Amino acid sequence: MATKVVDRRPLSWAEKTYIPQILSGLRITFRKMFNPVVTLEYPEQRPTIPDNYRGVPTLVKDPHGREKCVSCQLCEFVCPPKAIRITPGSIDEASGNEHIEKAPKDFEINMLRCIYCGLCQEVCPEEAIVLQDIFSANGYTRQEMVYNKKKLYELGGTLPDKHFKWDKKKKASEQAPSH
Amino acid sequence: MSDAKDNLISIFIDDVEVKVPAGINLVDAAEMAGKEIPHFCYHKHLPVSGNCRMCLVEVGTPGRDRATGEPILDENGVQKIMWMPKPIIACATNASPGMHVRTQSNIIKHCREGIMEFLLLNHPLDCPICDQAGECRLQEFATDYGRGYSRCAEDKNVKPKRTKLGPRVILDDERCILCSRCVRFCSDVMNDGVLGFTERGSYSTLTCFPGRELDNNYSLNTVDLCPVGALTSTDFRFKMRSWFLKETKSICTESSVGVNTVVNSREGVIYRIKPRENVEVNDSWMSDSGRLLYKQVAMESRMSDYTIEGKPVTPDEALQEAARLLSSGKSAFIGSANSSVEEQWMLAQIIKKTGDSVPCWLVAHVGEGDGFLISEDRTPNFRGALLTGLTDKMPEDKLSALGAAIDAGEIDTLFSYNECPIAAGLSVEQIKKVKFIYMGTHHCDASQYAAVELPGLTVFEKKGTFINQQFRLQRFEQAVPSEGTLNDIKSLSAVLAAVSSAKSVPECVDSIWQAMSQSIAPFKDISFNSISDNGVLVDGSAFEHLPFVEGKSLHYEPKA
Predict the structure, then answer these.
(1) What is the number of domains present in chain B?
(2) Partners of residue A73 in chain B, C-beta under 8 Å
(3) With an 8 Å Cβ cutoff, is B3 touching chain A?
(4) pLDDT in tens, A2-41
(5) B198 and B287 in one domain?
(6) Which of A50, B115, B220, B511 has CA atoms 20 to 30 A from the CA of B196?
(7) Closest partner residue to B241 among A73, A101, A126, by Cβ?
């Protein structure tokens, strides 16, 4: 490509001193010092997370402390990056929850794979897996980033339950007339 | 069968003409026409009970004048179809010439929706924890004909959940839709009427007769038959969801019946084995004991290391050492009717090159037959050993002649393939006298004395063929991968190449079949991929004089 030489206007005397430019820059700096703050001092300050935010997927318990997941493996099936891995298991007789029959023996989510799409939450028939407000998942090793069942319940905590469907089921079976 | 095939009649399913065998019921006739009539209680291999009412269809027959017998014609001169005033069940209706069937009319759709609503009235809808989910007929038809919400304000019935019907079957009665398939299987197929219903109406409950339990060796077929998740297998319960399972066609190795199976696995782990329909062999059934055979894959006694004198070596070193031992002195071979046809043929080729003076020894595994799907011969492939030329006589209970030959110092090397020589009657001293090469899937009593150990693969980790008691050649596919172990055929071909100094030896199933179809008359024109799912009968008339141990079983009559 041919080079085209553009003539520049020569600098004036004032411009050669740079002082007007420095002063106009400082004017903006000083003006902003007294404006309201728009940034957060992360990590000391944390942003407010909206309710429908899709953070790290977690497992939750119901208000009675019962683990809600019944290891139906629908989330494992629907997970697009195949981040979820469940080992299904059964619930012990005489544990008080034996009527629910199934619970995960282990539940792993590989957070290196998770894409925070929320399909697991959407598909869960028990409302047991919820993407809550944790947005920063980090660790020193790859293994650390595979969250196991214990970690997922620690992150998830307890959420209110609208249905208590398994409690209703148990009550019905206790009150059922004998035939 | 040939009568029915010749006697084809024309019926019209949704105005499409189909040729079907006379007397076939309409569910099967529609299936032949590529249409599904939804049904729960009907099963091809069970007597018809007609209690689920799901298969209602509209049926009409060509009209004839009652008095004269003349055809009634409509204004176009076509014989008028006299439609029955109400829908009737397809499973209990036999096709007759000229019959018209409507499977998709509005009335039929309403019927199905009504039936589904009744069936779902007391169904717990606990699909997330139900093992049947994904392969549940009720789930499938609920998506087709279900209402999607319940009009029922009352509570659902409460019935016993987790009833143990037998050692291998658990019943969830709330899920039961009272189709009675399991009841009919026990009473009509097994002739062991264990199950029955008690109570009435929606309180009907499936139970065993007092003092009985569902413990016969075919009890898990009721689990397969159950169209919903009421009957579940104790072994498979809560292990894996059905939609993750990969299905691989296989053959059961329990006995010479050669039951056709489907192996369900996920990511290299087998979760269950189910029967595969083959009307010439096992209908839709299989034994409970055969379903447990997948556990041999992950057994602790599984051989994994190639060793020479107990020291782990590379596969190549072990195979070369085996070949060296076989070609250095007089060799004897113990072959197995547990090996596939291809492996037996490869072994026969090795024997031809090395052990010419000594025949191949086969060990008999005879048990009690049950007259149904377990035969007396507890090996899957003795007929294969006959056809591949591995042997020409019946296997022996005890290899005392081989023991005598070892004692007489006539044998330097003993190669045992898939058989334990100690279980076959040889003594430890006799095994110590020879260089013992053991090739097998699992450690046995004798493997500790082996000069060379060559691990092999189970039926689930390789592909090949078996020939069952009917001389039916049946194919099995590889269900799960093997880790660190060579395919048996690869091992044998490496040994064969070393002992024969041949330029090329067959190394895979397909090339072995090319060689076999040329050299073995009954295998003429057969290639591995040409064997159909139902198997191919091969000519076994050359061996008719042998006193086979099998007695009568399903679809098998011993030659007198």
Answers:
(1) 3
(2) 240-241, 244
(3) no
(4) 899 999 999 999 999 999 999 999 999 999 999 998 889 9
(5) yes
(6) B115
(7) A73
